[in-house]
Amino acid sequence: MNFKEKLDQKRRSANAVFHEFRLRSDLKDKYFIFVEGYDDRTLLGNIVLRYRNGKDVEFIICFGKRNLDRIVNMIDSESFSSVKRRFVRDRDFDVFMGMADDAEDIFLTCGYSIENYLIVEEDIRRFIVNTFCESIQGWQSYVDQELEKLFMLIKLLHVRLERLYAFCFSKIGTGEVVNLDTISFRKIIAKYEVSIRDFELYVDQGVASIVDEDFVEEEKFDIFFDKAREYVEGCSEKRVRGKYLLGVLAEFLEHIYEKMKENNLSEQYGKINVRRNAMINFSDRYVFERLSGNFVVPVRFENFLREYLS
């Protein structure tokens, strides 16, 4: 690790973020919102613009959930009662495992992470129509039909991740950290007509890349499989990791756009705006940024912001 990398690591530590806040905490007119990362600020920044009522809102990036938890404890242990602040934290598996809960100044996302707010059928439908179509006329039934397939795949993904969930629960139970970034489901529907069998195989290979194979052999892990089955019973759009869903959605949007450009579909349903979409690259980042500017704010989070910024 070179000097620049060491310096960056120090800057991203919980202590560094806390001391940055302490230096700015005497700014009485500031409304601080602590978030885990830059994506959270991107998404929440668009929302805050609607509700800030002229207030001077400043986001503080904590560089991860664990850092945010440490910073909450640091602030609580000192006298900052007059400083206006709120914390927005991913739910992850922690609430399900009984390791986290909402507090007056802490908002836990409704789904696994901030990205899950974007996996809403109506928002995706509106994005497709507004971005790809010259007119909604004719395309509504086709888009609805494809969206039904998308959410079927999401439900299937949720079920196929049961073994990964059990593994994560076993690690969380002992205080260990699992790096889920080593799994990518970016290409599960690279070819949207992929058979269910091929889809399941791909997911199994992804799970195997992180789950210790000996894990499934141990009887002592039965309790975690029971927890995983219970977790799978919940809403897939909320409980599957948001970054996985964003990758699946990006592939889906690329697929549906290519299909809509086909002459036979255009003749059947209506024209699409090809020129407007010539620069679309369908990356996870592009999809996140486009959806985050137009999604419908969940009532629970809207109330949280209104109470804070009123």
List the helices and strands and how they pair.
Blueprint: H1 3-11, H2 14-24, E1 30-35, H3 38-51, E2 56-61, H4 65-76, E3 85-89, E4 106-108, H5 121-132, H6 140-160, H7 162-173, H8 196-208, H9 222-232, H10 236-239, H11 242-261, H12 263-269, H13 284-292, H14 299-309
Parallel strand pairs: 1-2, 1-3, 3-4
Helix pairs in contact: 2-4, 5-6, 6-11, 7-9
Description of the structure:
The protein has 14 helices and 4 strands. The N and C termini lie far apart (46 Å). It has a 4-stranded parallel β-sheet, sandwiched between helices. It has helices at 3-11, 14-24, 38-51, 65-76, 121-132, 140-160, 162-173, 196-208, 222-232, 236-239, 242-261, 263-269, 284-292, 299-309, and strands at 30-35, 56-61, 85-89, 106-108. Helix 3 links the parallel strand 1 (30-35) and strand 2 (56-61).
In sequence order, what are the helices and strands, one letter per element?
Answer: HHEHEHEEHHHHHHHHHH
Distance between the termini: 46 Å
Helix fraction by DSSP (H/I, runs of at least 4): 40-55%
Q: What general outline do the C-alpha atoms trace? A: globular
Mean pLDDT over all positions? 84
Cross-sheet strand order for the largest sheet? 2-1-3-4
* Helix-strand makeup class: alpha/beta
Radius of gyration: 22 Å
